[in-house]
Structures are given as C-alpha cells and as structure tokens.
# Entry
Amino acid sequence: MTRVTIDPATDILGLIDVQPTFMPGGELPVADGAAVVAPINRLLEGPFQHAFATQDWHPPGHISFASSHPGRAPYDEIAVAYGPQTLWPDHAMQESANASLHPGIAQARIAVVVRKGTFRHIDSYSAFFENDRTTATGLNGWLRERGFRRLFLCGLATDFCVAWSAEDAAGLGYDTYVIEDASRGIRLPGPGNRTTLELSRERLIERGVRFLTSADLI
# Structure
C-alpha cells in the first residue's frame, strides 16, 4: 500500500478494547493479543497527536455471557431480540483490573474513552453503536465536533470489535483504515471453512475500509 501521511488536524487513532481481559491470562484471550501494545505505543508516541479508546465494560449477568444462559457454552450462538448473539466467557467485568486499559499503553494522547456493553440486555462490539445497530455511543458526535475525518483503528479483536467499529465508521462517512500489525483476531470458524477473520476482512474491503501496517504511516 502507498504510504499515508498523517494530518494531526483531521486524523485520529482509535484503540479498540486494548484490555487485559482480551490478552493471554485474561478471561477471553485473543492469541498474541498483548503484542498490540508495542506498535500502538509507537503510533501514540509518533505520528498521531490525537487518539480515542474504547473499553468493554460489562455488568454481572450480561446477555453475552454463556453463564447467563443455562445449558449454553462459550462460543455458542443464540437468537436475541436484536439478532444473533455469540456467547462468550464472562469478561470485561466493570471495575475489574482486567477491564481497564492495558497499563502499558501510553495514554497521554487519548482524549476520550468510550465504555460499551454497559447495558445488561444488549451487547456492543462497535465503538459507535450497540448491537441493535441503533443505540449510539456518542463517539460519532465527539469526532464530528472535533473535526476528525480519517480514522485509523487498531486493537482487539480484528474480526469482532475492530471490524464492527470500522464498518460503522465507513458507513458514517469517515475514511477508515485498520492497522493490521497493531491488531489481532479471534479467528472463529465460519461458513465455507473460512474464519471470522477472513470473512470480516472481505466485508470491510467491500465497504471501502483499507488495511495497512504501522510502517505505512508517516
């Protein structure tokens, strides 16, 4: 990919769920998840003057927890009022240490933190909307008020919260990029012997989202 020059006035880095709960030793570990911290810090200390972050922030008994549905196991899928819901191990529990932003992240340039999945009855992958696709988090309004037009997203996991955030960002009219070396995926099995990582990447490319690495950014 052609190298991209960062404009501090209109470009912002988005850290999606860079939390210990999604890293090895956490409740819902993404393989190699802790490896995103170093490239993210290089971006925060380098080309980007502005950043936002999201946190999964779940109450006890959250609808996405397999433990909330007797007889169900993690990674089962059920139907709920807003559509299909993948069930997960209990994770990102409000006020727990593992639900905080990773302590190794350089936070000086993170201007706002959006907590999502705070309602017991609805899950939230995207930085912009709950999973009913209509309940807004408020992030879009903040970005518009600040004049940001290009979003560079990274974090955990590429095929779920990063992908849903990127899809919504593109749908809202932002030029949207996913920084692949600063993200990691879960890779659940999907239709046609393809993983959720492969399927989400195809879906995002169809919607105009571009993929790059931190080395492509100036």
